[in-house]
Amino acid sequence: MKKIEAVIKPFKLDDIKEALTDIGITGMTISEVKGYGRQQGHTELYRGAEYVVDFIPKVKIELVVEASREKEVVEEIINSARTGKIGDGKIFVEDIEKVYRIRTGEEDEEAI
Questions:
Q1: What is residue 91's predicted lDDT score, i.e. its pLDDT?
Q2: Which of 109, 74, 78, 112 is nearest to 94 (CA)?
Q3: Any residues with CB less than 8 A from the CB of 85 and at least 6 apart, and which?
Q4: At what angle do helices 70-81 and 13-22 cross, to 10 degrees?
Q5: CB neighbours of 17 closer than 8 A, spacing ≥ 6?
Q6: 84 DSSP assignment
Q7: pLDDT over 80 (residue 94)
Q8: Tens of pLDDT along 45-63?
Q9: Given this model, what pLDDT does residue 95 score?
Q10: Which distant-in-sequence residues (6+ apart) come within 8 Å of 72 by Cβ?
């Protein structure tokens, strides 16, 4: 099993959710996060005063899938999240050793 984490621009969330639903991915966790990479921060003007915004709002999607579906899911996220501009985000993939469904006690693929 694989855990896929994607940090994306917030306005792309609906596109990604729709694309993943279309390929049968029914569960994910969404978090509002802030950060920066190459995009860095930017300056804004508020009531005549200039200030630096160091951290940019992003959305983090987390999902666990069968290892055989990793490439398919990553490609869907990339195709749905890409704008071609700096700050499109990153995708991280890690191995998951075990998954348990609390309600039923199911394990691994049955628990996804």
A1: 98
A2: 74
A3: none
A4: 150
A5: 28
A6: S
A7: yes
A8: 677 777 777 788 899 999 9
A9: 97
A10: 23
